[in-house]
């Protein structure tokens, strides 16, 4: 660049290092807490190097759970979270790739109307219509079911817009060539469009998986059975206002377990993650 | 923009649209319109009957001092988080934009909090600043401050702002970095040749060129604080002490669930919808301008 003075680079490293430390510190504390017993944490002077209780804490958290509050093994909660996150990611990709295909590659009456009906959902997050949605899900008998957890959260336009935008960049000649080869709508979709969209699908998958795993308010409302709890709900229940009841070592172990899957997705699929994030916002 | 080549099939496109339209109608339009309808109804205490009361729920809402307080809380909360997180991430992004050795690794280390659920972020921060066992509470208390976010509303708000900012920095950082990398290096070099130093270059060239990104992020951050911080508030303060950290969205939840006031909760939902639609409209106007830019 313009001036490559050494001290400016040192300053840059310094600023970034401070940033990294601030970003990592709360998580470091959680990891630390997951290696101590309850007494060490409660007395308020937790050492800043790991203790030796990690194996006990993790096995108890995963297979037994907190004894005084949420009372379900966290392994089960992670399973629920995983099913919900996968359901949201796959479901959203499925419905939006189909509807984007219809809107971009077909001409039919009410095409524009259909697009706008979907598009408007962009504006209203689930939080503002939470109780009426709850009532509908209850009337359909979907409380405490995976379907009830998943379906209302995929009713949004982001995926459709993303695929529409991508399909628009595919040259018309591809469809013309497929048609000359005698391909119908199904073959064009299966053999041409889907293979071309793989990166877009993967990017949307990454974003939606994180979104689904981290959902809080909706599962909080519609799950009443503790066997349907997701991990994000479970951890909140472990932290009670009465301090005496909070088993901090289990709660923080749960926090670490709850962060692990989405953080691993971001770290190992960073490129797809950034692509998905930037493009769904456009 | 339209495709020149397309299929003309009479039934297939409707079949393709059906899953999304069905889900959208059942889980979006139906509840949204019910929220509007319900905001004009008053239910009795047992939810057995309801009568049409016009704008009564709204009038009642605007007569509550708590509603104005929730509004103020939301404004303070969202502006603090937006300013703090934008400032921090802009600083980090300008530093990460320099071609540094190991820059990619540093970038990864800064973006992963995006993946942490808001409620988990809240749990991490309340653990760190817990009045009795928090690791960082001791140094604060050593300074002579009676730190207690569970009883002191100001402390509670500070803790909320910090945790919400922590979670949002990664997002802003990514967008600022992308914005910085899109600025042509020649412009900056030209200014350097004209003898302007790094700071002056930042304020007169880089910052103005970044303004579309900044504006976009301001809107996104406000929407984030409105809705996504629900989990943080629920974990850190539960809206307390004494309702002093209850935001508009938290109040919708609290009034409907804990208070059972569905009409009032629906009226609040409708007001929130109007706010979000206004914010989205502002964003779209700006998007149009960016195209000309």
Automatic annotation (TrEMBL), chain A:
It is a multi-pass membrane protein. The keyword Phosphoprotein does not apply. The keyword Magnesium does not apply. Pfam families: BPD_transp_1. PROSITE patterns: ABC_TM1 (PS50928). It is found in: Cell inner membrane; Cell membrane. Residues 78-269 form the ABC transmembrane type-1 domain. The chain crosses the membrane at residues 12-36, 82-106, 113-134, 146-167, 188-211, 248-269. InterPro entries: MetI-like (IPR000515), MetI-like_sf (IPR035906). It comes from the Bacteria. Keywords: Cell inner membrane, Cell membrane, Membrane, Transmembrane, Transmembrane helix, Transport. Its main location: membrane. Belongs to the binding-protein-dependent transport system permease family. Part of the ABC transporter complex UgpBAEC involved in sn-glycerol-3-phosphate (G3P) import. Probably responsible for the translocation of the substrate across the membrane. The complex is composed of two ATP-binding proteins (UgpC), two transmembrane proteins (UgpA and UgpE) and a solute-binding protein (UgpB). This is sn-glycerol-3-phosphate transport system permease protein UgpE. It comes from Microvirga puerhi. The gene is ugpE.
UniProtKB/TrEMBL annotation, chain B:
Its main location: membrane. Keywords: Cell inner membrane, Cell membrane, Membrane, Transmembrane, Transmembrane helix, Transport. InterPro entries: MetI-like (IPR000515), MetI-like_sf (IPR035906), UgpAE/MalFG_permease (IPR050809). The keyword Protease does not apply. It is found in: Cell inner membrane; Cell membrane. Residues 71-283 form the ABC transmembrane type-1 domain. The keyword Heme does not apply. It is a multi-pass membrane protein. Signal peptide: none annotated. The chain crosses the membrane at residues 12-32, 67-93, 105-127, 202-227, 266-287. Part of the ABC transporter complex UgpBAEC involved in sn-glycerol-3-phosphate (G3P) import. Probably responsible for the translocation of the substrate across the membrane. Belongs to the binding-protein-dependent transport system permease family. The complex is composed of two ATP-binding proteins (UgpC), two transmembrane proteins (UgpA and UgpE) and a solute-binding protein (UgpB). This is sn-glycerol-3-phosphate transport system permease protein UgpA. It comes from Microvirga puerhi. The lineage of its organism: Bacteria, Pseudomonadati, Pseudomonadota, Alphaproteobacteria, Hyphomicrobiales.
């Amino acid at each position: 660049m313009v001036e490559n003075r050494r001290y400016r680079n040192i300053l840059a490293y310094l600023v970034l290092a401070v940033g990294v430390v601030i970003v990592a510190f709360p998580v470091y504390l959680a990891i630390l807490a997951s290696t101590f017993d309850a007494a060490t944490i409660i007395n308020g002077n937790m050492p800043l190097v790991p203790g030796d209780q990690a194996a006990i804490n993790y096995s108890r958290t995963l297979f037994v759970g907190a004894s005084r509050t949420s009372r379900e093994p966290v392994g089960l909660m992670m399973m629920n979270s995983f099913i919900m996150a996968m359901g949201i990611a796959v479901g959203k990709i499925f419905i939006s790739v189909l509807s984007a295909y219809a809107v971009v590659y077909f001409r039919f009456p009410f095409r524009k109307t259909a697009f706008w009906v979907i598009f408007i959902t962009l504006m209203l997050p689930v939080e503002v219509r939470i109780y009426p949605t709850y009532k509908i899900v209850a009337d359909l008998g979907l409380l405490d079911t995976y379907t009830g957890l998943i379906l209302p959260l995929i009713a949004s336009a982001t995926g459709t817009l993303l695929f529409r935008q991508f399909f628009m960049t595919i040259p018309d000649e591809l469809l013309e060539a497929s048609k000359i080869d005698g391909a119908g709508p199904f073959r064009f979709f299966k053999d041409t469009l889907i293979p071309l969209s793989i990166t877009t699908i993967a990017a949307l998958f990454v974003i939606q998986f994180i979104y689904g795993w981290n959902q809080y308010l909706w599962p909080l409302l519609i799950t009443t059975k503790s066997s349907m709890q997701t991990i994000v709900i479970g951890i909140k229940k472990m932290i009670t206002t009465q301090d005496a009841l909070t088993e901090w070592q289990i709660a923080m172990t749960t926090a670490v377990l709850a962060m692990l899957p989405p953080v691993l997705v971001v770290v190992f699929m960073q490129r797809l993650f950034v692509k998905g994030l930037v493009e769904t916002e456009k | 923009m339209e495709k020149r080549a397309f299929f003309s099939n009479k039934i297939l496109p409707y079949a393709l649209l059906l899953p999304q339209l069905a889900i959208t109608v059942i889980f979006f339009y139906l509840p949204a319109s019910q929220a509007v309808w319900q905001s004009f109804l008053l239910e009795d205490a047992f939810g057995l009957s309801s009568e049409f009361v016009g704008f009564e729920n709204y009038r009642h809402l605007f007569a509550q001092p708590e509603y104005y307080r929730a509004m103020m809380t939301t404004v303070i909360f969202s502006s603090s988080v937006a300013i703090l997180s934008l400032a921090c991430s802009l600083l980090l992004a300008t530093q990460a934009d320099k071609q540094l050795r190991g820059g990619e690794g540093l970038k990864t280390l800064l973006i992963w909090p995006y993946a942490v659920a808001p409620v988990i972020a809240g749990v991490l921060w309340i653990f760190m600043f817990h009045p009795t066992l928090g690791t960082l509470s001791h140094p604060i208390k050593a300074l002579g401050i009676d730190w207690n976010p569970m009883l002191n509303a100001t402390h509670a708000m500070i803790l909320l702002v910090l945790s919400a900012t922590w979670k949002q920095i990664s997002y802003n950082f990514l967008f600022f970095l992308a914005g910085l990398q899109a600025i042509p290096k020649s412009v900056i070099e030209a200014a350097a040749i004209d003898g302007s130093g790094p700071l002056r270059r930042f304020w007169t060239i880089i910052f103005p060129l970044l303004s579309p990104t900044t504006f976009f992020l301001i809107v996104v951050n406000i929407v984030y604080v409105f809705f996504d911080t629900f989990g943080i508030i629920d974990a850190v303060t539960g809206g307390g002490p004494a309702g002093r950290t209850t935001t508009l969205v938290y109040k919708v939840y609290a009034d409907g669930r804990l208070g059972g006031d569905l009409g009032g909760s629906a009226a609040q939902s409708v007001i929130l919808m109007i706010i979000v639609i206004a914010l989205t409209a502002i964003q779209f106007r700006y998007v149009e301008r960016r195209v000309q830019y």
